[in-house]
Amino acid sequence: MGARTGAQFLDGLRAHPPEIWVSGDRVRDPVAHPAFRNVVRSVAALYDMQHEPALRDEMTYASPSSGERVGLSFLVPRTHDDLVRVRRMMKRWADYSGGMMGRSPDYLNRALAAYAAAADYMAANDPRFGEHVRRYYEFVREGDLCLTHTLINPQSNRAVGPARQADPYLAAGVVRETDAGIVVRGARMLATLPLADEIMVFPSTVLRGGAEDAPYAFAFAIPTATPGLRFICRESFDYGRDPRDHPLASRFEEMDAVVVFDDVLVPWERVFLLRDVERCNRAFAETRAVVHMAHQVVVKNVAKTEFLLGLVCLMVDAIAIEGFQHVQEKVAEVIQTLEAMRAFLRAAEADAALDRWGMMTPAWPPLDAARNLFPRAYPRMVEIVHQLGASGLMAIPTSADLDGPLGAVIETYYQAARADARSRIRLFRLAWDAALSAFGGRQALYERFFFGDPVRMAGAMFANYDKAPYMERVRAFLGRVEDEAARPAGERP
Ligand SMILES: Cc1cc2nc3c(=O)[nH]c(=O)nc-3n(C[C@H](O)[C@H](O)[C@H](O)COP(=O)(O)OP(=O)(O)OC[C@H]3O[C@@H](n4cnc5c(N)ncnc54)[C@H](O)[C@@H]3O)c2cc1C
């Protein structure tokens, strides 16, 4: 089929709706359900961009197998230019939501492309698995399917591994193997954007490594509409209000769900890793999937920071606070985050190299620095929106108020130095939705955690960063100091 249109994406969801539960409701038609109808249209708009004549070449490339135009985020890059093309395409998608939809499909398309390029890694677990992941990648690319994923075992008892929870099938585990495939029971968290065609169930990197963890060590992918697979959502933050009142939540509420496997059969051809605890723990890093995902993440960080910078600058301008030094300092702080993210991205691409799987892979240290910094930088930018908006973030009547009997009063008392009341209220409602609403709160939590626990990410950086040359330099300096001190005073430099 090749690159899909938005309508084809929506048709796919209607034809094969996953078993999604939200606020006690079984969602029969996610395209029509109030919790999802807006966000699925936003995802559809991304797919439609692939067919805009002016963007077609930027968004798609000719499939090496079918010759059809397919989404560029599936590309296995071989050159620096390939990486730049992928980045431009991802930026176009990220800009659509101001970076507020972390799960535009490119996020997992990058992971899948890396997994397929590193198919030999899976083949070392079982020769069939390498072929499975290669075929699966082609299947998803040619059908332009939308993926969600889940990695983490339920947050029940973090002091022990999955095998020692209160119930052996609290964390999703293999119950048995049959001629047809593996049967999986238990739960995983979270799956953002459950409104997807397929779910990739990735290995968790926190298995303890013992034989007891083997039933929990796997990588596979299945349709989200597979029998026995359930998505239990949190409540929706899209309250179905006038989109001018909830400008972000009414478009980009991508939803998060706990995934429950009720003896789900995973066919063998969809199994990519099984029972190899060590290989599962190392899969993200060794296949370089984490690097290609981080590339997408930092592109999103740039788009999101640009959006917040535009937002705070408009707020500052509207109420004429640009002359205060601390205001300038706070806006400058957002600029510093933006330029840092841009620099990380540029460095990662400039220092990209072919990896052992033949994939042109961005340099990891700058991306790793970006993914460690942003979980702190994003909440700080949200705080800056609070500090600059102050009570203006509460002076946000709704469109119904503006159009109601008090409209004229509101026009008077809500005007700003450089914006009439309507424009100012629209702007400050956007700021509220970015920084204070349930949607905004979830964005901050997302940035803190979605790519992993920041504490453990920092620990991994500490463990893996090559610190030796710098320690050696300081040792040499101290040696020089010693040598110089040993010389007679007159001979010291
Ligand atoms: C909005 C949102 C969307 C997400 N979307 C997805 C998704 O689509 N797919 C997916 O797979 N995951 C998703 N995640 C989950 C994400 O990967 C995890 O939040 C992250 O890995 C941290 O794990 P946890 O939430 O289980 O926290 P926990 O591991 O339960 O940690 C809770 C606290 O205990 C501490 N702690 C726990 N264990 C240790 C330890 N061993 N060492 C040190 N400290 C420890 C942590 O530092 C933290 O402070 C999402 C998360 C959020 C918030």
How many structurally independent domains?
2
What general form does the structure show?
A: globular
What is the CATH top level name of the largest domain? Mainly Beta
Q: How many angstroms separate the termini? A: 74 Å
Low-confidence stretches: none
CATH topology of the largest domain: Butyryl-CoA Dehydrogenase, subunit A, domain 2
Which homologous superfamily in CATH is the superfamily of the largest domain?
Butyryl-CoA Dehydrogenase, subunit A, domain 2
Report the portion of residues in β strands: 5-15%
Number of helical runs? 18
Q: Which strands sit side by side, in order, in the main sheet?
A: 2-1-10-11-7-6
- What proportion of the residues is helical, as a percent range? 40-55%
Oligomer: single chain
Number of strands: 14
Bound molecule types: flavin-adenine dinucleotide
Q: Helix/strand/pairing class, anyone?
A: alpha+beta
Please summarize the sheet with the most strands.
6 strands, mixed
Can you summarize this structure?
By secondary structure, the chain is an alpha+beta fold.
Describe the structure.
- The protein contains 18 helices and 14 strands.
- The chain is α+β, with helices and mostly antiparallel strands.
- The protein folds into 2 domains: 6-285, Butyryl-CoA Dehydrogenase, subunit A, domain 2 (Beta Barrel), CATH 2.40.110.10; 288-452, Butyryl-CoA Dehydrogenase, subunit A, domain 3, CATH 1.20.140.
- The strands form 4 sheets. A 6-stranded mixed β-sheet has the order 2-1-10-11-7-6, with no helix packed on it. A 4-stranded mixed β-sheet has the order 5-8-9-12.
- The longest helix has 30 residues, at 289-318.
- It binds flavin-adenine dinucleotide (FAD).
- Flavin-adenine dinucleotide (FAD) binds at residues 149-152, 155, 158, 190-192, 256, 442, 445-446, 449-450, 452-453, 455-456.
- Residues 149-152, 155, 158, 190-192, 256, 442, 445-446, 449-450, 452-453, 455-456 line the site of flavin-adenine dinucleotide.
